[in-house]
Design brief:
Blueprint: H1 2-16, H2 20-53, H3 59-68, H4 74-85, H5 100-124, H6 129-136, H7 141-151, H8 153-168, H9 172-178, H10 188-198, H11 201-229
Helix pairs in contact: 1-11, 2-5, 2-8, 3-5, 4-5, 4-9, 5-8, 5-9, 6-7, 8-11, 10-11
Length: 230
Amino acid sequence: MSQLLQAVRIALDMIISGDPVVYSIALRTLMISISATVLASVIFIPVACLLHFNSFRGKAFLLSIVQTLYSVPTVLVGMLVFLFISRAGPLGSLGMLFSPGAIVLGEVLLIAPIITGLTISALSGMGRNISDTAISLGAGRLQMVLKVLSESRYMVFTAVLMGFGRAVSEIGVAIIVGGNISGYTRTLTTAIALGVGKGETAASIALGIILLILAMIVSLTVNTLQHSRK
């Protein structure tokens, strides 16, 4: 017990003193996860709008698949990305394997269903009153979509935050396509896994505390947005 308390004390000292290794890993994790979240949002929020505002055969089945993929294993996504960007894969010529870009690509695919599905839920929660009113006032289809999207902005941003939370805490993609390279592709989760395996308890605890703080920030922000909407 005394050894554990000592490790916690050292971990807190590392955080308070601004240990360069700890903070460089945390910053790299944030940059990768934010990049993936922004890309996924730019691509899949419009996709969600297309799915929500259009009717077609198989729509219900497609939406059920999107919802099923909320909890897709990260190692599965990592394996699929690896197969595509490895030297033998169709995208091997890009040279992305074991790079931050590979992790970003994997995380985009990982959180795409979350952002898509939750955005559709946010749009569905607005009902038809807003869209019908916008159309009756002479708004075009694009203007109507933008109006509904604006009215549901808090819930859409919640979807984005949920995607970020999933990205920042994943480990399978980062290990498989990132390679856990020190100073280049090592993230909070992969560094924690490596530190525990090497017996570097204090450093692992420090990184875990930072990861927990990030998770708490996401959770508190989501709760604040939900209360603001009410």
